[in-house]
Amino acid sequence: MDSSLxxxxxxxxxxxxxxxxxxxxxxxxxxxxxxxxxxxxLDTRVLxxxxxYEPSELVVxxxxxxxxxxxxxxxxxxxxxLPFEPPHFTQAPADGATDGATVGGMVAxxxxxxxxxxxxxxxxxxxxxxxxxxxxxxxxFGGQVMKNVAGYDVSRxxxxxxxTLGLITEVSLKVLPVAPGEATLRFECNQADALRxxxxxxxxxxxxxxxxxxxxxxxxxxxxxxxxxxxVAAVEAACRSMGGTRLDNATVAPNWAACRDxxxxxxxxxxxxxxxxxxxxxxxxxxPVLTLPAGAQPLVEWxxxxxxxxxxxxxxxxxxxxxxxVGGNASVFVAASAGGIxxxxxxxxxxxxxxxxxxxxxxxxDPAGIFNxxxxxPGW
Length: 380
What we know:
Layout: H1 3-18, E1 22-25, E2 40-43, E3 50-54, E4 59-63, H2 68-77, E5 80-81, H3 103-109, H4 116-119, E6 126-132, E7 138-142, H5 154-157, E8 167-174, E9 176-177, E10 181-188, H6 191-202, E11 208-215, E12 222-230, H7 232-242, E13 245-247, H8 249-261, H9 265-268, E14 276-282, E15 299-301, E16 306-312, H10 316-325, E17 329-334, H11 352-365
Parallel strand pairs: 1-2
Antiparallel strand pairs: 3-4, 4-8, 5-9, 6-7, 6-8, 10-12, 10-13, 11-12, 11-15, 14-16, 14-17, 15-16
């Protein structure tokens, strides 16, 4: 164990003995999300660097505090990438500068970008993880190949746990080559037509990679943008069969990055709507247009499976009912009051049984309850 990790382990051990809450943080770019941010900051950025990278094996092992941009740059040099496009969220925390999103934060948040519906989520690329549990024990799970799990897949359990189960120190990830062919098509249509197009294309052998529909003004018309990735021949054939207006890749690339990081004008407009939260509705991709509160204009991603809505938190019952009616769920992603340590996003646990499973996992990994207490749900 190197000196930086040993120091962190000592802090965890002392915190467990004193029952002192610890707030795990890397770049702090996701401080806006979750129920609470309190406790002594435990900075992971001292755990930095790529431990090993085997481009021919499509595997990289990296320390948790490594900037995400640094890892992506190293992969790009070899023509490879993290295909799930993790968001960077460049905003800095309220109490100081940031190096940007870290690899550990990427895994802990479990958030994926526009390509998630086509290529999978963060957890699907997790091969192994090393973490410090609440007893300051260094535990290793998984390995560096896909078929390495016997029993519970703890590595993937860490994706989306928001640091409540332990402090991630190192992760091994599967990576993929950058697709040789890419194209973006634009279609002018309303939301219902956009969903019909996406559903129809989803049943065809097309190299769909990402999609985004947003309404233009109040008239109900909108713009559907679809990104294709894959073999050059497949992409070119899809462009001919799907129609639409083909956009220049270099010109549209910043827009896809803005979609990933939620900096598109649609997201920025929330600043002009005091009291509005950003809601995340996860629904089946085949779900129809949802009945939303008056004035709510959604942004639709993931081929229809992800609907972003700007609405007051008081509209929560209506939004949850709309999502539940089609077999989905709704939760606050950015609260109306979110900003640094004032964040109050909300997780939506669907049942008492699910809450009990989470609580038991929390107690098993962190018996003293010191890691990010209250971040996901009150009491754990």
